[in-house]
Structure formats: C-alpha cells, structure tokens
Amino acid sequence: MNKSYCVMRRILEIINLAGSAENFIGGQMSYFQNNGDYEVHLICSSGPHLDAFCKEQGVKYKAIPLNRQISLVQDVKSFFSICNYIRKNKIDIIFCHQAKARTLAIPASFLMGVKHRIIFSHGVLHETMKGLKRRLVLTNDRLLGKLATRVICVSHYVANRRAKDGIDTPDKQVIIGHGSCSGIDVENVFNPNNINREKLTEISNRLGVDSDDYVMGFCGRLVKDKGIVELTEAFELLRHRYPDKKLKLLIIGCPENRDAVPQYIMNRLMNNDNVVFTGSIPHIEMPYYYSLMNVFILPSHRDGLGMVPLEAQAMGVPAIVSSITGCKETIVDGVTGKYCDLSKESIADEIEYFFDLNKANSMGQEGRNFVVKCFNSEVFKQQMLDFINTLT
Known about the structure:
- This protein is an alpha/beta fold.
- The chain contains 15 helices and 13 strands.
- The strands form 2 sheets. A 7-stranded parallel sheet has the order 3-2-1-4-5-6-7, sandwiched between helices.
- The longest helix has 18 residues, at 72-89.
C-alpha cells in the first residue's frame, strides 16, 4: 500500500545507551519503516556513533541522559524531557528497554496517554539482590508492570520468573520467536565464512595468542554476576591439572564499579601471563575474537538470555553456560554446548570436555546450525513486525 495514503503510526524505542541501541535493536528500526506504515524514533544517552547510527537507520532521535546510577536531579530532568518528546511527536507505541529507560519512560508514556506501552524485559534485575534493595527494585518492577500494556520477555526463563514474582501476569507477556531482543546476524556479521585470515592472524599476533594455544573465551561486563570469580578459579584449577598444556583465557570486556569483581581476583588475572585482556571491542569486530576461541564460557549468576553465547555459536564455537539462568536457553545441552553449575570444579570439568577438538568442532557446527535456525535476526525482524501489526 502506498504510504502517502496511510496514517503513519509513530514508534519510540528507548534504551539506556547508544551502544545498546546498536547492539540490541540494530536494524529493526529501518526494517519497521521500510516494511510497515511506521515512523520510528529513538531516545538514549549520547554516544560517539549515535548520529551516524540513526542516519543509517533513517530514524529521528534525541539524546537524553539515562545513566544506570540513580541521580535524582538528572533523572527528573530526563523524565520531563521524555514526556515532552512523546507529546511533541505524538508517539503511538513505545518500547522500553533496560531498567532506567523503563523506570522513566513507562510512567512518562502513561501520563502522556500513549496507547501501547511495552516493556522489553532483558532480564530479572532483582534476582541476585538481597534485603531492602531487592524489595525496592521488585516493588518498582511490579508498578511498571501494571502501567505497561504488554511485556516482551527475551526468554521463557524471564517470563516465568516475572510471573512467579508477581511482576506481571502471563496473559500480558509475549516471547518473540524463540526469544532474544534482536536475534543474531548470521549472514553479514557472525559468519565464519566472512573471516579474513590475514586480519585474524594480525589480531592473534597482537594479543600474543599462538596457534597451538588452547583458548577459553569470555565476553561481557567484568562483574561478579557474570561469574568472573568462578571462571578465574576454574582457569587456575585447569592450569594446575595440566601444567604442560598451553592454556589461555581471553577476556573481552571492562570492569565496572557496580557489583565489582573483588580486587584480589582482578590482581590474580592481571598478574597471570596466560590471561589476555582486550578491553571493550566494537561489536562488528567480535567475530574475529570468537574465532580465536576453542570454547566460550559464560558462568553467569543472572542473565535474561545471553546474546554472547549465541554469537559464539554462530561463529562455530561451542559454549558453556550456567544452567540456572536464561542462558540455558542459548544452547542445546550436549549438542551445541554444555551446562555448568557455579563451582570452579564444574566449570573446569566442562572446559576439559572440550579439550577433545573433534567434540568441540562437532558441537561448534551444531551450534551454528542451531543459531541459524532459531535466532536469525532477519527472521526476528519480521516476527517483531508481525507483533507490532497486532497493536491496534
């Protein structure tokens, strides 16, 4: 249908960080505009590539500070800025990602009379909290759940946990496809066939990773919730078990102050010549770093789903994930990867299983097949658009 004869509905995506918008929402915004009668807007904190990203997507945007930390004065300013943007642009549908964005935008959109107020629940924030902090976060989530009209959960684990904790009811919840917030670009980005071998060798040499090293990889925020303490101890245990084996631990990510890894653990990692730190890596470059790994490990205490195990598997790398969180939905246990519990012995044992390179390669190929079949971003975009089209 010719769009000039249609009433364009306006969608607002709101998320904490510009980088998160690129990684978690990606090409969905341009897809909605090109394949539906929608005008898409974005609100997030400022970032170095925000303007270029929004021009590429063809969307309108406004940079509004949405910091993870509580800042009463700034949060109040951001709240009213969101209200003004919604009013001026006559937003019809709003998708609220991440804690600060939904805490401010769901009440703002309710007050501004937005008909479709949708929480995109990436995880269960209160899961590892205790005491008063847990009660406050849970109370806030329950209030937001009542104000929202729908809740998209990235996994069955998140949906079940939110229902169990009385945040929202199953009839309000939606899971798009097999889950996730965007799927994985298995053709253009996370595709082993696209790897330039010369570039891979250059990165390997720069990091000091030799061809005969056995590389265990981690990617994520360096915080306790991600299992960094247990992974460190597992790596040290394996070094003790196999003193003559060339084992390396490749860590991609940066330390954070909130839920910080104990300094004694960071010291042990920093002083170990067999641990390689890369810091933050651009998302588009990540396929090269997965390609250096023999196995990927995410022993997380709290994850709604976990995109990085899916990315690793898309690159043909088997994944080890904790069995107690949404991560368990990112692998097929014993087929594309292995579950571990949160002990150094369990993590070390599962890594040791993949010392058999034939098993590792076989599971790696099955992992790519699994991600292509269940988490293809091109399929997800259409599934997401199909859901939006039901919002009348």
